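Exercise 7.
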Amino acid sequence: MSRIEYNLAWARTSLKKADAIENPKRGVWAITERGYRMSEEEIYEEVRAAWHKYYQRRQLEEPSAPTEVDEEDDYVEPLYTELDWTAELLDCLNELEPSAFERLAQRILLEAGFRNVEVLGKSGDGGIDGVGVLRISLISFPVFFQCKRYGQPVDSNAVRDFRGAMAGRGEKGLLITTATFTPSAQAEANRDGAPPVELVDGSELCELLKKYKLGVSTRQVEEVEIDPDFFNQF
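Solution. The predicted structure, written as tokens, is:
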């Protein structure tokens, strides 16, 4: 299903858990009397509480069980939950100025082992935002990069334009975006006979920031478990 269909299904399931709507039969949904009386804030709090209880119960019952779709109530996992940090991170990235996003890409490449990474994002740069040197064993070569803070998927035209900007300067390119790439863009990036262009979408970008701890930190939660059998020996 599409993203909007997925999120709509999650919204229905969430509202049902909050007793704001009911599902008398498959494919039919109706607002309950309680739902009519609830304010937006009350619905929000009820939904949060319902999902919190659900995840706690599922963790206790099947800690390692995979998520399954409940055919009775059309249950689906939310595409973005409060536990999904990537949505918040992408919001932060999309609020950056273009020059700041280019400098962030520079920092990521430095952390990834590139040398002499330079931001070139100026008027007349020909579509090249920066360049770095990647060394593999005894071989070093320049890698050009371009940054796109897009709300829509990046298409094949962007890949072709970037490759054209690299012509005569190098054959290794890295296209970084906060969005996604269309299938045609992915095909163009690996087209036979053309210099390959490596693609980094928003999801991969978030993982890189997490990996190199750039504005993203992780923490371990202590879990305490009691062993009643231990006390029975006394």
